[in-house]
Every structure is written in C-alpha cells, then in structure tokens.
Fold:
Amino acid sequence: MAWWSIRTHFTHYVQKLLLQVETVPRDSGVDHSLVHTDPQDQRGLLFSAGAFGVCLLLAMFVAGGWVHAAPARPLSAGPCGTASKPPAKYKHVVWIVMENKSYSEVIGSPTAPYINRLAKACGVATNFYAESHPSLPNYIAMTSGGTQGITDDEGPSAHPLRASNIFSQLQGNWRALQESMPSRCARRDSGLYAVRHNPAVYYSNISQQCVSRDIPLTYPLNLSARFTFVTPDLCNDMHSCSTGRDLTTQIRKGDTWLSRFLPKVFGSRQYRSGSTAVFLTWDEDHGGHIPTLVIAPSTFPGTTSNTKFNHYSLLRTTEQMLGIKTYLGSASSARSMRSAFHF
Structure:
C-alpha cells in the first residue's frame, strides 16, 4: 500500500472524529445523527487526530513512503462500523423490546424513519420470528429458553416460575428498566405499565434481587449492569396509546421515542467504550415475522442476514457475548447471531 493510501485512511479517520465532535444538544428532541459525543470528549478526539498524524509521518519516514498492509474498510461515524473486530467478551448487552408489529409494518415504512435509518447504519435480521402469541409467552421464552407452558397474559400470581433465566444466570448483575412502572418490581398493571412486558417479576428464584434490579426507567441512563432489559410503556412500545390507536400512530409514536432514547444509549460511557452491544426487537406479531436490529461497534453498516433466527437465538447470542457457558432451554440448539453480524 503506497503512502497516498495511508493518507486516505488518515483522512477518513479525521472525518470520523470531526463528525463525532459536531454534537447535537442532549435535549433537542429527535436526534438526526443517531449518536453524539459529549462536549468534554471533544478535546480528546482532536488530540487523538493529532497523535495519529504524528505516527503517520514517522511511519512514512521509516518505511520510505511504502507500507504493506491489507485493505481496510472505512470506519463509520455512526453507532456501528467503528471497530474492526469485536471484543473477546462484551461487558454489557442491552435489549429493547417493542410490541406487536410485523417486519413489513416497520422495516421500509416511512412511518418509522428513525428505525430505518438505524437499520441502514447497523444490522438487520431479515428472517427473525417470535415463538408464540400473545405477548407473555414470548417474554418468558426470550429470557428462559422456553414458554414454560404459558399461553396467556396473566400476571405473576398466576405464573410463579422457578425456571432458570438470564437474570438468575447473571447472579444479580442485571437491570430491568421499565418505563411508567409506579414502583420497583411492580407485579400488577398500572396506567401505561403492563406487567406482562416485565418478565423478571415472574421468576420467583430472583425475587430477592427484583426490588433492587427491576426499576422504573429514569434518566440519566444507568447501563452499568452486564445485562439491561428495557421496556417502553404501552404508548412508546407501539402497543397502543390514548392519543391514537391506529397502526400509523402506534408506529410513529414508538419510532419517535426510540429516536430520543437510543442516542442516549449510544452516547453512554458503556457504548463508547466499544464493549456494549444493543438489540432492538419486538415481542411478536401473532407469533410471526418480526423486526430485529443488531447494533454493535463492529457490525458493519448495512449488514443483513436472511438466516432464520428467533428469540432463542437472541438469548444464546447474549449468553455467548457475556461469557455464559450454559445455554438455557431451546437456546442450546438455536443458531447464534454473532458471525452473521460480526460482533
């Protein structure tokens, strides 16, 4: 590779840094850049660019202007494509679970502009399926590796479960953030909070952890746990809302919420460290084909996979990423998503 090729890579690197420095105010509503950098990080970013330039000049002098290296893909300025390889083990995995929309209702829809920009900026599992209908069996399946025989949406008093689950696997190093939940580990519906969308409260074997780990969603975000399960309320998860029950309004409401929430995730210290991955999925659409986005620094923008995945694949993949060696239930035979999305 000649010196002019190195110069090209340096130019791409500086452009990436400058894009990160152009921040969007934290409270500006919808974020158009998908991710922004905190102001205090700007000086460090510019310093990094200068240091890279010095190293480049030294390399040119030492090598006489010629360096032999494999071609590299240009880095992205968004939340994905910023790392050439994934970490050996992730420190944090975040799930965000939306409600009751099919793949075709969301992906490619002009009603969900933010989600579709994010899909192009990161990865999409184009052949991802739920397990059952209605909601609750899917929430239990994705967190325990099976529906545990549940076929309804009844509360924890009707379904006290002792099954092993991803929360118990992590021995307290998890957090569930529940929007509009009136109190910690609430076991009954209240306003826009639906207990059937909060799987942690169903597992009696983590009841002692529940009060401290299953908490209302507040800001600033705390993503310090190894695993974070995020549930928007009934208005913001695309389920239903008093401001409009038609499909268009439901999707638009959820898309707008994500456009405000996800940039906070991408701007967090955990995500910017390069050791955090995010999954955006839906619970079900009558057990059918649902959207699922994969967001990680090493996932190249525009990645898609038509491999058939489901919530058990999501569970197995998360267990792998967190270094858990024993896979729960049907996760043990499910396909992993890691190689498909390079993370």
